[in-house]
Amino acid sequence: MSKNRGDNSVVVTGLGAITPLGHSVDELWDALLEGQCATQHWPDLEAGGFRIAHACRVRNFTTPDTKRGQMLAIASAREAMTQAALSNHHRVGIYIGSTMGESAAFEQAAEGALFELSQSTIQVFPKAIQQDLDLQGPTIAYGCACAAGNYAIGSAAQAIRSGEIDYAIAGGVEPFSKIAMLGFSRSRAMTSDYCRPFDAERSGMQLGEGAAMLILESEATALKRGVTPLAKIGPLGLTCDAYHPTAPRPDGSGMAAAMAQALATANLAPEMVDWVCAHGSGTRASDAAETLALQNTFPHRPAITALKGALGHALGASTAIQAVVAIQSLQKGLIPATINFRTSDSESALDIATKARQMTSLKRLISCGYAFGGINSALIMEVI
Amino acid sequence: MHASVIKTLKSDNPAITAESVAIWASEQIAPLISDNRSDQVIGIYLATGDIGAKISITFWADALESGLAFANPAAFPGTLASSCATKIAEKLCITGPNYTLVGGGEASQQIIQHAMYDINGQQVDSALIIGIDITPYPALGFMMLGRDEGVGLLTSDKIRPCTAQTLASIAVWTLIDQLSE
Asked: Which of B100, B109, B118, B134 would best serve as a mutation to test chain A binding (most A beta carbons within 10 A)?
């Protein structure tokens, strides 16, 4: 297959994020560089009967439970719009990824509360942003599980390249979900320790939450408006393992195929990738498969960071949060560490960043996200 | 661009899980997928209004009734909106892009547009487009898009000539029309 994603330059001109490590991009970035970990014990989870009561939740952000995702999405979109100096005079498409929607609404419906489906599924997130910012344009909701943010960003970039829209808010959001907390715990995917991506003693994931948004537009449009492009969005590689509802292909071939597709679409050799912002969920199976995929795709051993040790797994928001951090890294020539990583697997040859690392030569990275059902995504981003 | 088949169906069985719906859909779709496709990249493009949501409610209700410690882990993947599209991929061995868009009629239109982008951009050779809802009964519409000579639209009861420009709108109309019955 060839290669039309990536023909025209799509740039990022605004970033927004609200995560367990802060209510803004700057707070997130500073916390990551300090090596902070957002893992915390939550008494309400313990009292609710959860076997594991540690998670990474956004603190000091009080919302109605059934609107939490919408409020997270709006907060991050406002920050991104401000940085990009976009107003509601512009026609802005909104592309948002998530896994479930307003999980608390489903939980309350199961307990007998009145429930309006269309006000609780994933489609409510882009519509809430549109209404809050008084925008005109298409709204699209991607239910592509833990890769949904990459799907949203890649599709928004495609829509700009095609001329369908001039501007996009693209990203992901995930409110904290007791359903997910229970499901991952009962699936034995969740650690009672810390999340330790790629560590030899890793024992599982930890649930997170949050939202992250990017403002996308063509480079020509950004320059014409006089705003500073922060980074270029490159091609998105997408594959599906078609293998198992929860487990990845053990050889990592589906993950590697997504990376290879992104590289081929961009006409890049693997050694032109300087850094990988990896999925790194901290589970035995997923990290083992990703290790093989990275080793087979990138024999030159680029630096690797996985953010889930610091932030937990924000599911549909996780790849959008990765994108925000990745663009910060491109801007500053500095990559954050893989928090809680201590010891490599004996068979691993990955160059895991164990401390924040200066990379003044950082020009290009690939950000990976995988999901239940074998969904694989790999998004390339570059310096301007 | 060529739409080789479009078909709409309803199940008579209201007792569903995400997995059972996906298996039922896969059985309906399987004849559409050529056996001789080893060099073909096929993508799945699925639009739904309620996959994931309904299962989430059921999963949580069952957990509350039986106790969290006894919640069924096998039911959890069905709480994800993507669960149906990935299960269909697994059943039919489809390894290309796997999209799920969530929404009403606009999602059906958008999913076809995504498929057309990927075909025109040569990201996929053909696109399996699926509309599926589970309330009140499982309802399914699907069609294949591919890069063939000529343009046409085959529905379950008639063949309509159409242009590439009208293909999406006709297909969407048919899907929505059938699913909303």
From this structure: B100
Q: Is the pLDDT of residue A89 over 80?
A: no
Domain residue ranges in chain A: 10-225, 234-382
Whole-angstrom Cα distance, residue B163 to residue B161? 7
B49 interface with A at CB cutoff 8 Å: yes
* Interface list for B 112-171 with A (CB within 8 A): 114, 117, 120-125, 135
How far is Cα A54 from Cα A343, in angstroms, rounded to an integer? 23
CB contact under 8 A, A121 and B98: no
Q: pTM of the prediction? A: 0.93
pLDDT tens-digit readout, A357-374? 999 999 999 999 999 999
A10-225 homologous superfamily: Thiolase/Chalcone synthase (3.40.47.10)
Q: Give the C-alpha separation, A379 to A376, whole Å.
A: 10
Determine contact: B50 vs chain A, CB below 8 A. Answer: yes
Question: What domains are defined for chain B?
Answer: 2-179 (3.40.47.10)
Q: What is the mean pLDDT of residues A83-100?
A: 91
CB-based contact A11:A217 (threshold 8 Å): yes
Pairing of the two strands A167-174 and A210-218: antiparallel
CB-based contact B52:B94 (threshold 8 Å): no
Residue in this structure with the two tokens 């299960």, named with its chain if needed: B87
B108 Cα to chain A: minimum distance (Å):
11
Query: Which CATH superfamily does the domain covering A234-382 fall into?
Result: Thiolase/Chalcone synthase (3.40.47.10)
